[in-house]
Amino acid sequence: MLTVYVETLWLGENEGGEARPMREQEYVHGYSTREGERLADQAATVERLLHHDTIYPPGSRVLEAGCGIGAQTSILCHNHPRALFTSIDRSAESLDAARQRAQGEGVTNVTFQQADIFDLPFPEASFDHVFVCFVLEHLADPVAALRCLMRVLRPGGSLTAIEGDHGSTFFHPRSEKAWRTIQCQIDLQARAGGDSLIGRRLYPLLTEAGLRQVSVSPRQVYADPSLPHLVDGFTRKTFIAMIEGIRGKAIEAGLIGERDWEEGLADLRRTAEEDGAFCYTFFKGVGIR
């Protein structure tokens, strides 16, 4: 029986004090030390790819929603030392890790606060910009989450959302068994109410939420032996590490047998060897309230 993937429904209050339903679920990848390391490896490896065109002017008030262990927080704060960041997460454990990371890296322009995207403790139009990265894929109702974030965004302010898309994965040598292990991740996340293919949906999600001037751009990671830092940092330590982490859940859920899993994972690891290549696409969307 899987318990980590159960979606929980609970009641919050709207601004008028009336009860309203909200949707939350457990983080599919878990909160292990290894998962924290994986997120840090991912952030460091694709920093320029994802962040080179993010610009927050001095004095800007920026809300980072779902900061997790602070892997993206440190990058944002270092890149915009004169902007003022408020980074929130619903996990106290993750926030502790984020604070420690920020302190260790000398980051001083961020305030961490425990809060839920669906029940934000901020007045309307509190922030000039909102940043949300690798969060919407885990939510049962991403449009509702975006609308909650827009409430605290000032008119004319920007919302930036970054998501991956596991369906964009392709690699050499080809292997149906390797792809089956990736499909297990896609299926598990779908059972949880999330969507690991959400990158391709960013434009309709942002526009449905009510954002204007929406633009979405693909950010492709390609790794072969001529790019060893990407092979190690992304293929091995980010993507393959993510798939390795769901082994027990995938087998327990009956999505794959142990032998097929081991053979598929071996083929996936092969893509990081001397005769291999790996490609994955992130999507970055920006809209204006």
Tell me what you see in this structure:
This protein is α/β, with parallel strands linked by helices. The chain is built from ten helices and nine strands. The strands form two sheets. It has a seven-stranded mixed β-sheet, with helices on both faces. A two-stranded antiparallel ribbon has the order 1-2. Helix 5 (142-151) crosses helix 7 (202-209) and helix 6 packs across helix 10. The longest helix has 17 residues, at 228-244. The model is unreliable at 1-25 (pLDDT under 50).
Provide the helix percentage: 25-40%
Which geometry do the CA atoms define? Answer: globular
Largest sheet: 7 strands, mixed
Separate helix tally: 10
Flag low-confidence runs. Answer: 1-25
Average pLDDT, all residues: 89
